[in-house]
Amino acid sequence: MELSNNISASNEAQFFLIAGPCVIESEEQVLETARELKEITDRHDIDLIFKSSFDKANRSSISSYRGPGMERGLEILQRVKDEYELPVITDFHVPEQADQVADVVDILQIPAFLSRQTDILTAAGDTGLPINVKKGQFLSAEGMDNVVNKIESTGNERVMLCERGAMFGYNNLVVDMRNLDIMKDLGKPVVFDTTHSVQRPGARGDSSGGDRRFASTLARAALGAGVAGIFAEVHPDPSSAKCDAATQLPLDEFESLVKQWKAIDATVKNDQ
Fold first, then answer.
1. What residues form DSSP beta bridges with 232?
2. Can you give the residue ranges of the DAHP synthetase I/KDSA domain (predicted)?
3. Which residues of the chain have pLDDT under 50?
4. Do the beta carbons of residue 17 and residue 193 sit within 8 Å?
5. Structural contact between residues 51 and 89, judged by C-beta atoms closer than 8 angstroms
6. 132 vs 144: CA distance, rounded Å
């Protein structure tokens, strides 16, 4: 599947990265992170799609930071495209936002909590852009077939499916690696979200917790199973992050992970 900037998505080809900070905290933060991520991926010849959110509409608390809003957020993402020639991806939360967001981004993302919302899915499909759908924590991998069918009803078949764990009791997620093969059997590129998969939703009462030390382990497992892409939220200083502070990966440690992930991906796909 062709995505953007000569980037393609295939479960059989070299993996690509979707990476960036969870939410836009400032223009400076986004541009710094985009520049360093581009330098890292250029050194290792890995395709990068930059990700950040202009609004986090599903935060645990009413007082949690949500982002700069759509207009300002899209301006910042446009700067990433213009200055670093990177494709960008972001999520949206109501159907009415789809066209305006699609004017800037190269790929649309459907948040996990909205992955069954028919109007969201068809609005995304109508833009004609590639779409990355986060599998809801409440959905089975087999249930993503209905999600694909909703989007394809618009005539848009450019769909990727993203695994990010399933609810396991209260405030915890578990990743069933069988889901990767099940979703590949639906005929779509599969992306593995390695940082949201180690989240503990609402575990801190007014915010989510998690444990980033397991993110690399899960990424290695997913790459060993063979996926099209890895999604990772990366932050210059995760401890100060305004969203997902417990799970974002430190920017200054990310290059070592990328090198390791590329080696695993190459070993698995060269053996096929």
1. 19
2. 5-268
3. none
4. no
5. yes
6. 12
